[in-house]
Each structure stands twice: as C-alpha cells, then as structure tokens.
Amino acid sequence: MSYMGTAQKLFDFIDNSPTCYHAVKNAEEKLLQAGFERLSEKETYCLEGGKNYFVVRNDSSIIAFSLPENEAKGFRIFASHSDSPCFKLKENPEVVLENAYVKFNVEKYGGMILSTWLDRPLSVAGRVVVKENGELVTKLVDFEENLCIIPNVAIHFNREINKGMEYNPQVDMQPLWSANKEDKIYSLIAKKLDVEEDAILGTDLFVYNKEKSAYIGWDNGFIAAPRIDDLGCMFGSLEGFLESGNSEYIKIYCVFDHEEVGSRTRQGADSDFLASTMKRIGVACGFEDKLSQMYADSILISADNGHALHPNHPEKSDSGNKPVLNGGIVLKYHGNQQYTTDAYTGAYVKDICKQNEIPYQTFHNRSDVAGGSTLGNISISHCSIPSADIGLPQLAMHSAYETAGAKDMEYLVKFAKAVYES
In this predicted model, what pLDDT tens digit does every residue of 59-84 receive, in sequence order? Predict the structure, then answer.
C-alpha cells in the first residue's frame, strides 16, 4: 500500500509544522536538500537555464521555480497556502485571575470551529524577532510540550450545553497555562532561545493543537490531523514539484500566507509576490516583453481542500456533486467564480487525470448555501493566467482536528507531478 508511505510523509510534515512559519521553513529545507538556491528579494536575480531557485517572503510565503534549459513557453504553477485557523496571542498575553490562574489573552485567526479547541492538549509556537549585533533577526520557537488547555464549563453549571452553545472568544476561549502569577511567556521564550528577554522586540505566536496525525478506521482508510487544510495541499504539491522531470515550461511552486483572513497582505495571494517574481524571472532571463504572451500558454492550479460528503449530514452536499474521502482529487466549480474552474481549465484537469489514471471528483456548493472562497481568483487578478481550483476531500474543515482520506494524498502528488510535466 504505497499510499501509506505518502500519508506518513504528510504526518511528519504536519506534526513538524505547528505554524505557517515552521511549514515554510520545512519546505525550504526540502528545497535546499534538492539543490535549490535561495534568492533574496533585496538583490538582483541572476538566473541560469536548467537551474532551480526559491525565494521566501516574511517567513511565511515561499515561491520555488525550476527553469528549463532552453527558452520557456510559459508557466506551470501550483498555489496553496501555509496558514490554518487557530488562536493568536495578543501583545501582553498574560491574564491573572484570582491570583490563582494565568491565562493567555488570545484572539481568533480565521474562521474556526471554536468548540473543537476545548479540552485538548495545546501548545504555543511561532516566530520571535530579536535584536542581535544591531540587526533584527527572526527566530522560530515551538514549546512542543503540552503548555495550555481551554477547559469546558462543567455540564452541572450549564445544563443546556448540549442544546447548543455560543462561545465568546474573549470569555470562553482563553487558554489556561500556569498556576503561578509570576510566570511570563516572554521569559520562557528568552530561555528557550538563549537570548535576553529585553532583546525580544516582536512576536507572532499561535496556539496549536498538540495531538499528532493518525490513521483512523478499521483498515486505516482515513487520516486525522490538525491543519490538513491547507498543509495537505502545500505538502502534496511540493512532493509532486520535486518529483517532476524536465519541462518546456517554468515550473513554479507557490505558497501564500493569510488565505484564512482574506489574503490582502504583502505575503498573501492579493500581493504582488507571484506576479513580481515572474516579472523578475523574465527580466533575468531576457523575456520580460513576452510575459503576457507566455501567460496565455500557462496554467495555475489553485490547491485548497474541498468538502467531502458528510456521513451524518449528506443533505449538506449538492445533489449531483458529492466528493467522498479516497475518491480522488476534487475539481471545484462556482458560478460566481469563488472558484476559477471553467470549461477550458476543467477540461485540462480532467484530461491530465485521465491520461495518468488519477481519480477525480467534482464539487459545487448547494445553490442555497454560501460557500467558502480561496486564493485562485485573487492570485490571477494580478497575472491573467488560466486557472482551475482543486483540493482534497475532507471533513470538519477548520476544526482543530480534521479528517481526510488516506489514499488521496498520493493522488494529489501524482497529479501535481503530471501538471508540472504537462
């Protein structure tokens, strides 16, 4: 069962990527091991045909690309995102209650299913900016141990809880992390990073679910993990990118941050990151004046997970489009272009799948239900490239612990490889 080997690699990637910063760092390490050269946006790009490069923006978005030996016809692009819904620590995060408890003051990041975060072992990870030798330096931190928990209110104090509960994030969702009012998270960070506490000038710290990825089901047919949306697509497209062979096209692996909060940041899909990188490639390789022409012979696959048929609520699915776990990649359509797939790009995806014996499924929202959106239509507004939206089928999207099919990751890797080689 080769798919279990791919699923295990996904487990390792997710379990070692508690935040978007760690996910991008892990992708960077894979690229370096594969011989890619890191570029800096602060410097002029000096590129050679047949070589491989990548660039990171703000520690949480990454674009890698492989140049063909000869003149390129266009681009083959896979785009996913590195962030997932969770809680973010505010500045001055400690809240002391009754001189007995210390809580973290947190706010929501993205659209979360709040109840799924209760009564689970949680920890804190992210990035810290410190001043060293007159420079601002970013360091990653992960406490790894079970640092905190968000306790439920006992049913004895809320007899109606099973009839429905509206959670107030400022009241109900503050994680408990210490019984000593003297404990300060920045002091612990300073010790962990071996820096002076007053050298810490900035933090982006997030609460994450400590539960590990796991197989579920009698035959290990399902997988469950935190952050499957969208680390599954980030991982699967990277594997396909690294496995793909030579092409007449410039192959681009692209991961944006902040999809869960609208993408309108300097490292989000609504930034110039992708468009400016392609322009800089054109300048360095001498074809800047042909970019618009090359866009017409390109494809962008927006990879973000889709909703599977729910075993307890099948009525939530569209009557004619019901993706299931282990049924293959999901090709997503939306009449109002929340998803970018049209007749042409949908045909492209289907043709790739048929040629390579990759199962695929289609998804539409019910016509009376407002669905989500993703980064495809945002990114192509900056560079007019034909695009299709795909993903893997999953359950409990935006839960602290999500469910997917064990076989589907291998289908995604195979599909990504085929797109890059097409």
Answer: 999 999 999 999 999 999 999 999 99
